Amino acid sequence: MQIVCAPSPCHSFCNRWSFKGQKARAVRQGIMMPRTYFSQAAKLSRRTALTLALGTALWLPLSAVEAEAAPKTALTLGMAIEPTGLDPTIAAPVAIGQVTWQNIFEGLVTIDSKGQVKPQLAESWQISPDGKTYTFKLRKGVTFHDGEAFDSSVAKFSLDRARGESSVNPQKRFFASIDTIETPDAETLVLKLKQPAGSLIYWLGWPASVMVAPKSAENNRTTPIGTGPFKFVSWAKGDKVELEKNPSYWDKNVAVKLEKATFRFVADAQAQAAALKAGDIDAFPEFGAPELMSSFEGDARLGTFIGNTELKVVAGMNNARKPFDDKRVRQALMMAVDRPTVIEGAWSGLGTAIGSHYTPNDRGYVDTTGVHPYDVEKAKALLAEAGYPNGFSFTIKAPQMAYAQRTSQVLQAMLAEIGVTMTIETTEFPAKWVADVFKGGNYDMTIVAHAEPMDIDIYSRNPYYFNYKNPTFNEVIANVEKTADAGEQEKLYGEAQKILAEDVPALFLFVMPKLGVWDKKVKGLWQDEPIPSNVLTDVHWEE
Questions:
Q1: What is the pTM of this model?
Q2: What are phi and psi of 232, to 5 degrees?
Q3: CA 313, CA 333: separation in Å to the nearest integer?
Q4: Which terminus of the chain has a smaller tally of CB atoms within 10 A, N or C?
Q5: Which of 242, 276, 238 is nearest to 258 (CA)?
Q6: What backbone torsions phi and psi does residue 244 show, to the nearest 5 degrees?
């Protein structure tokens, strides 16, 4: 599981909420050229006159040279959440990959800005007709930042480490289908599977699947060493991570223009805006406050950019705990939720409603928002049918991030309309939330933005914090992996979405957009986010 560590709240959104004729609203809010001075001359000699003439003649060319000064080669990029470590193969928070993936670490394959799988450390691969043997041709001449060579033995080490009995890889399930790994020679890697795994190539492009070296793997959490275009320099905890260009980068077709990149960690949205406007931060690819986006309108230096993400905001319910073990209760709660109003109140109207754990960006998407439409009276009737004519009370464990707090406040008012009392308990994220909810399962309802692309399969995992069990759904998900046919997979994904929309193991709310603010001269940052990342390979300043 990867969950977004979205920004902390900048304001309390509201204390009370009215839904009669009102919608939720968030609070919105030249360098002078140097002069040229000529030395005084008491006498206008031929030499002095020539000097003045030359000085005058040289003034315009000199100005032109200054105007054409070399573009900047350093970038300061802001993030709301500081990573807990710098090794994406041992921990789940997306902030780790947002610093290191494709900058420091690379995989056999990668995922580009359009969400397409591309070769990387493997230049090509072949899949056997039965879908159970994958043969990779690896690139020659690739080295890690410390000089250690990358070859098939290193690739085998990385995958064995990720899938081994003692593995703490956050996506260990990705590698569960691998039976054996063979290395016929230094440039050839062969994966033999227990059964077909239709998504394996895609999974191998994720941050959790990057290649690590035997000598440095154990220290990657604090001093990461990869094969990427940037090398780790330093980590001042609580402040910043610094990277520098890797002069020995293997891909000579890539012209890396940044010499230095600094990731600055600023949790408060007001502070984010101030740092951007002051020029202390050049770019904030995931800006923390939608209500402040309008404050950058008309700014001569800064631009705003709205893109697509995989950030699915859902209010997960503990399906093993009463009253959430009754499907009718879950359906009633879903019908009490007016998604457009939630989006307006939580994220200033910037977002896309969803009816299942899937985004419009994903292949095989089906619009299921109409399965349980907003209907307060039907919601009340369904609660009564389930044995709760007077409603009930429960607690939602809401992380401190702005979107979670605001969404909880809106939901609290909406559920009150059907007689349900929801108490909001702010829960520190990630540590306490992970301990209480994700690992401990000690909760009624929670809310979080799931960042993994196409992660609808989480509802089939056992154990998983929703405690949702549906054999029919599990079978559909299993069949997705048994075929590599894209059309068949999309059909199955459609079936899975419809099952979840009907069963409502979580309140499916909206997809968060990617709100970016950065200097207009900064080019190459991803506007859309098919996978959480801050890829710097193509980033440069344009003068």
A1: 0.79
A2: -70, 135
A3: 16
A4: C
A5: 242
A6: -135, 160
Alpha helices of 83-234 — where are they, by DSSP H? 94-100, 152-163, 200-203
Q: Cα separations (Å) of 172 from 163, 331, 447, 456, 474?
A: 6, 33, 24, 17, 18
Give me Rg for the CA atoms of the chain.
27
Q: For 207-274, give the secondary structure using H, E and C.
A: HHHCCCCCCCHHHCCCCCCCCCCEEEEEEECCCEEEEEECCCCCCCCCCCCCCEEEEEECCCHHHHHH
The single-letter code of the amino acid at 332 is A
Q: Could you tell me if 304 and 116 are in contact, meaning their C-beta atoms sit under 8 angstroms apart?
A: no
Structure confidence by residue, pLDDT tens digits, 240-292: 999 999 999 999 999 999 999 999 999 999 999 999 999 999 999 999 889 99
Q: What is the distance between the alpha carbons of residues 449 and 521, in angstroms, rounded to a whole number? A: 31
Q: Are 97 and 533 in contact (CB under 8 A)?
A: yes
Q: Fill in the amino acid letter for 542.
A: E
Map residue 403 onto helix, strand or coil: helix
What does the pLDDT look like over 392-404, one tens digit per residue? 999 999 999 889 9
- Which residue, among 477, 451, 452, 482, has the nearest Cα to 200 in the 3D structure? 482
pLDDT tens for 49-60 read: 334 343 433 334
Are the C-beta atoms of residues 449 and 3 closer than 8 Å to each other? yes
* Cβ–Cβ < 8 Å for 177, 167: no
16 Cβ neighbours under 8 A, 6+ residues apart = 413
Query: Confidence class of residue 68 from pLDDT cuts 50, 70 and 90?
Result: low
Query: Widest CA span of the chain, in angstroms?
Result: 107
Contact 302, 272 (CB under 8 A): no
Residue type, 252: K
485 — pLDDT class (breaks 50, 70, 90): confident
492-505 average pLDDT score: 98
In 10 A of CB 253, how many CB atoms? 5
**129 exposure class (CB count in 10 Å sphere: 0-12, 13-18, 19+):** exposed
Residue 486 host element (H or E): helix 486-503
Q: Supply 398's token pair.
A: 């809401």
pLDDT for the residue numbered 1 = 58
Which residue segments constitute the domains of the chain, with CATH numbers given? 74-81+228-308+514-541 (3.40.190.10), 107-215 (3.90.76.10), 312-511 (3.10.105.10)
Q: For residue 476, how many C-alpha atoms fall within 13 Å in the half-sphere facing its CB? A: 21
- Verify cis geometry, omega within 30 degrees of 0, for the bond prior to 430: yes
Q: Could you tell me what percent of the chain has a pLDDT over 70?
A: 87
Task: Map tokens 């039976």 to a residue.
Answer: 179
Beta carbons of 430 and 83 less than 8 angstroms apart: no
